[in-house]
Amino acid sequence: MLDIKFVRENLAEVKKALEKKHSKFDLDGLLALDDKRKKLLQKVENLRAEQKKISSPRHSEERSDEESHDSKRSFPADSAGQDDNIKKAKAIKEELKRLQPELEKAEKEYSLAASKIHNIPHPTVPAGPDETGNKVERMVGKKPEFSFKPKDHFELGKNLDLIDMERATKISGTRFAFLKNELFELEFALVRWLTDLLKEKGFTMVIPPVLVKERAMQGSGFFPAEEGEYYAVGKEDKEDIEDKLYLAGTSEVPLVSYHADEILTEKELPKKYAAFSSCFRREAGSYGKDTRGIMRLHQFDKIEMVKVTVADDGLWDADSWKEYEELLAIAEEILQKLGLHYRVMLMCGGDIGMPNAKKFDTEVWLPGAGEYRELQSCSHDTDFQARRLKIRYKNKKGETKLCHTMNSTALAIGRTLVAIMENYQQEDGSILVPEILKKYLDFDVIKKSESEILFS
Fold first, then answer.
1. What is the CATH number of domain 131-455?
2. Contact 421/153 with Cβ under 8 angstroms?
């Protein structure tokens, strides 16, 4: 959500920003709705002020003094003034009764429209329409070389009894999987290693709720733009909104919402959180994509990092951009310590989300698939989410400001397992464990047991 005052004062800039994001948002329509609600609000406030004036004791005393002065002039007692006030109060009450539903409707129409406007992209964001406009920022590491044709993770997982999708499909449908045996242990080795690493970097480790209210989805910017992507549970009746919850597609949602409606102090910031959670997505629109293996599932585990920071010194000059650079550096450090070759992509305007002002994706090389695939996303959302969620802080001058928020995947666990399997595979079909994870496991290599080899 953008500040409507900022929109009005920077109309040309905002229109260009929406064009860069390839948004067809009706900006003029939003301003018209804002004008309509303001006019109705002004009418209601004026009527309430008049209503208050008529019913105030001071007004009654003034009327009484006038009547007393008139009586001294030997005029007969006149209750006409009192009757006029009663009639006027009744007319105001009726007019307020008529206007209140109109105002509520106008407020809802405005709020709904305002919730659909995109955040303004950073000046360095490319202007492409979709993923074809993304820019390779840098390549890190080298592709592994093999003396044999590398297998993809699905074949490796099936041969080593690590992945079972057939039984998962029988139980839950497509895009679900059982992760088994050493792959189970490898996942928790990753979680334990990342916990140690992120604690050292000052992050508070969190296991958040994965069921969230609609406000958390709205406030973090995932609704209404991506509402069809998430699972709703509870009553479908919109009137009983408290009983309707959503399965979060990322722990960014509960983490960003953690300080909703709070005013922090500048010395508390930045707040740094890292959460482990299961995530749930419908994968709407991905029909036919990544149907083989565990690259794109409806349920997956992830560790997400979120920062809440100060926002002084202007939109693009704020210290929060240094915090953002540090966040991306941590994401890259994780991949480097795992020994994975990757590239950093600067995402274009047409390929970043509604809340994002800037976004980098890291794409890891998968030798079995023969392609780069996204493993982490790192986004700066300026005050977009904070405005929706009312996350504020007092600066050193005592002024109340909106915070800046940003987030990055530490690791999408399933895709990381895929990357390890394909990059660390051996000619005999076994998989080596990355050096950084060995101390968390009681094995150095994933391979078939002697009995499996004997009877294979």
1. 3.30.930.10
2. yes
